[in-house]
Amino acid sequence: MGEEMESKREGAANLDLWVISVLGKDRPGIIRDILEVPAKMMVNIVDLDQRILQGIVVMSMVADFGKATAAPKELEGSLQRLAADLGVEVSVLPLDQYRGRRRGGKNLQVVTILARDRVGIIYDVASLAAERGINIERAQVTARGELISIEFVMDFGALDVRREREELKAECEKLGLDVVIQDLDKSAKEKRLIVFDMDSTIVDFETINQIAQAAGVDREVEEITKRAMNGELDFVEALRSRVGLLRGTPVEALEEIAANIQLTPGSEELIHHLKEVGYKTALISGGFTYFTDILKERLGFDYTFANVLEIRDGLLTGEIDGEIIDAAAKGRIVNDLARLEGISPDSIVAVGDGANDCLMIQNAGLGVAFNAKEILKKVSDGSLSKENLIGLLNVLGLAEKGSDLL
């Protein structure tokens, strides 16, 4: 129906078009009662948008009077008599008087904003869009506790979309707003699988740093970890160096860390909800299988991939057993999972926090940087701050929708 409406809109430039607007208290049957009037007068409805806002019905129609048996003023009179009985307000106005300047060449993007609710968020984002000549076509609010989500559909028109997306993300971040931007067509593709990094994403710390603390080499390991996450060191080299420092650590240290593993706030609820609605889930980590195996059992991941710590006689040898899961491996695994599940990579969502997640993020249909380093933000579709991981449900359209704004 959407394509049919769009086709009618594009071909209706020379028709006798008028806008019918309705505002009033919602009740069952109100749309039928209103549409009955133009139907009997042979007035063709070529576009329609109807929403319920806090119990109020808001409806706008574009009506073609080309073959109508009544003039616009006659229709308006009949609708207003009906409106008095229905308790609504109706107006009929010529479309050309109000038609917007943008008639074609649209480039629609879905811009999802997440933040703790405060006065002025919608105004702030609208101002950023207006300053760049970006037209807001639709906006919708969803509330989840203290978290508010606003989903905008914005028309970037002939602007440089890549540059404008980056600037809009940067400006939103300055305002303390999380933002994810997706091409409208791409966002409409059904998502089937979501892959997560483990450390500092699903788990609220870097597991290798916890092991290093038990081994008494935490300062050395943390420094290498920091440089690797910022992209200053090759991941494979950094991992081997860090694991080498763990030589001689008893396996009991890993057992204690696993027993007290701390999940990122919202991660357990998020994964539970994703599983409940039919998503497949995967954990792709540059960390260690000792912990991903535990999380697979605890959270129900369908797939887990990580590095294997070599253990002999109950002690870490300081070596990795087998292939290392680095950035290239993470990117490859996303494509492998797509083939395994029989889906397009566009149906995959990837969430991570560091440089090692860049290819994983880029190879997925939607890539989200979580509490991330700048190097990852630059290649992602947007970012979520630490307290907003559960907001991924809003980005995926899985949270209950609230009020329409436009």
Quick synopsis:
The protein is an alpha/beta fold. 38% of the residues lie in helices and 28% in strands.
Strand content is: 25-35%
The global form is elongated
Pick out the low-confidence regions: 1-14
CATH topology-level fold name of the largest domain: Rossmann fold
The quaternary structure here is: single chain
Main pleated sheet: 11 strands, mixed
Estimate the helix proportion, in percent.
25-40%
Mean pLDDT: 89
Second rung of CATH, namely the architecture of the largest domain: 3-Layer(aba) Sandwich
Strand order of the largest sheet: 6-7-5-8-15-14-13-9-10-11-12
DSSP summary: helix tally:
16
Radius of gyration: 27 Å
Measured distance between first and last alpha carbons? 20 Å
CATH hierarchy class name of the largest domain: Alpha Beta
- Please tally the β strands and state the result: 15
CATH homolog superfamily of the largest domain: HAD superfamily/HAD-like
Structural class: alpha/beta
Can you tell me the number of structural domains? 3
